[in-house]
User: Fold this.
Amino acid sequence: MTVYLDHNATSPPHPRVLEEALPLMTEHWGNPSSAHSLSRKPVAAVEQARARLAAWAGCEPKEVVFTGGATEANHLALRGNEQPGRPLYSAIEHPSVRAPAEALGGVLVPVDGQGRVDLDALRSLLATPTSVVSVMAANNETGVLQDTDVIASLAREHGALMHIDAAQLVGRLEAPAEWDLLTVTGHKSGGFKGGGALMVREGIKIHPQSLGGGQERGRRSGTVNPAPLVSLGVVATLSHGPGVKTLRDRLERAARELDGIVHAEGAERLPNTLNVRFPGVPGELVVMGMDLEGVAISAGSACHSGASIASPVLQAMGITSGDAVRLSLGWNTTDADVDVAIQALARVLGRIRAQGAT
Amino acid sequence: MRIVVAMSGGVDSSTTAALLHEQGHEVIGVHMKLHDADPGKAGHCCGLDDALDARAVADRLGIAFHVMDLRKAFERAVMDDLADTYVAGATPNPCVQCNGILKFDVLLKRALALGADKLATGHYARIVDGRLHAAVDVDKDQSYFLFPVKPAALECTLFPLGDLPKAQVREHARRLGLVTADKAESQEICFIPDQDHARFIAEHRPGIDGSGDIVDLDGRVLGRHDGYWRFTVGQRKGLRLALGVPVYVERVEADTHRVVVATKPHLWHSALEARRWTWQDRPAQGAVIRARIRHRGALVPCHLEGDVVRFHEPAWAVAPGQAVVLYEGDRVLGGGWIRRAIQEAA
Assistant:
């Protein structure tokens, strides 16, 4: 694979991540909970990661609960909070929020055609007692950014907690200012898979979902896994420069010239994400054609690939056709990568259209 | 050449991919996801286990592999057609529909769109001078199922197994270490794992009632049935009649819901009328050719008069909705969809 444009699925490890986190798998492999000296390096590394994450999120290190990833953090946020009422969650949430929220009798908050939470609908739903409002900071498929400060103040006015899934935000942009529960993972921006965290504001009681060794101040039992957590700490110190947006915008212009329709173009979006459909051209066929050209992209989102209907996220925005593809750039994307991708896209679309394939 | 191989997860398509890969071609494996039927049951051909088997073979060969979601197209062209045909009182042939539309139209276009020179499948048939022929292994021959594939599509198609006996295909699969080498055959309707098509119709056409009388040739009521689409011309099972003499379904009347039964001699047909022909090479009117009216059925000498195939010896139980395929030697001349059976006094 020569060109990788699927960072929202997962991202190649950043060199600084490898430099800092790999020694925890090779030399400093000790259990951070041990009493002997072999625990010292891993403990120091994990605590540094905690401090880095807290600095990004604007909170105290003790408010960081490390987990095995964003799915686990989302479960801790939804199933672990003891606030009375039912959860509200937006129509574009990741399945790892949607599924536990549904199971708790949660109610879905609609979004507009640009994928932004419908604030009027949220207001009226908040009239019924609500435990938590769960909204993602940046959508994995479209990159749409939510106005989480406004949503958080609405939630709090009605006595509900604000949970933000920021899995696609860390390592790219600034953290949201207002939150009570904040989910992150490192592997979308150069970290390892298997490292996540839920930030829990001081004073909020969270019920552990795993019991046992009492790690993470009793809020998440299970042996602390230093390498991915340290990688997450490194990611929290990274951010997208203006370069990523310039590259994405160039790709977006090229897609439009190939008769692409950009989704959520009217909304504030992550600078790295392009979700576009080419009417009449099956998305999965574009993905396969690009793969043969050596360019990795995805149809909809990686978790839903293989379905020729629009993903639930796009359906919530009123898009029904299964023609969408997602190109997501990252820390290692170059100008030359974008050149290759644009040329490949033109060839792939040209062939599909010439054959009239459906 | 760049060749897309349709990989169902069975031994035939696995071996097809392996042989073409061995010959040095750039092979791209594609598994068509066609439906959501429970893959745990026997008789399936495109469930999850099969997709995993196909992927395992592709990984073993080190070739590209993709799953294509063609459920919508399959539902329209094959599943709806099956229900509609049964409800119209005829006997559908979903495999022919799947080949004609899904494999050699939708998939073929997609393969060419991926820059492939050819589409290859594990069918037992041959393409000689651009024309469809029966396979060397007459027991495995699938040319009957392939008649709607147009000559233009055949130009972009390969059937690498058409020259091989089945036993040799399995030998190749074992030699190449394919996990599918000893897999059982799948020949039933892949999207109805329990083969209960009446249940399928009840689920896909909710509220429909097909119950009616079972009558003899004179219209005398002999019994009741709970859905005329359960019956096919030539069928003996499921009539639940005790007449002292074996009777068979002679015809199914969708408009009256009547299932007409008769003794065996009444089901020897002298001709049939077919429509929606696909011609490879249209035979001269009156030329002596041979007809096949069901998969693996006998080849019956006949000639063509317009849309009527006139048999030179009687053919048993011509079923409307099935295909008639015409051969000259082992070359397929074309085929059509049977509209009605014709019985004339000899």
Summary: Chain B has three domains: 2-175, 210-262, 267-342. Residues 41-46 of chain B have pLDDT under 50 and may be disordered.
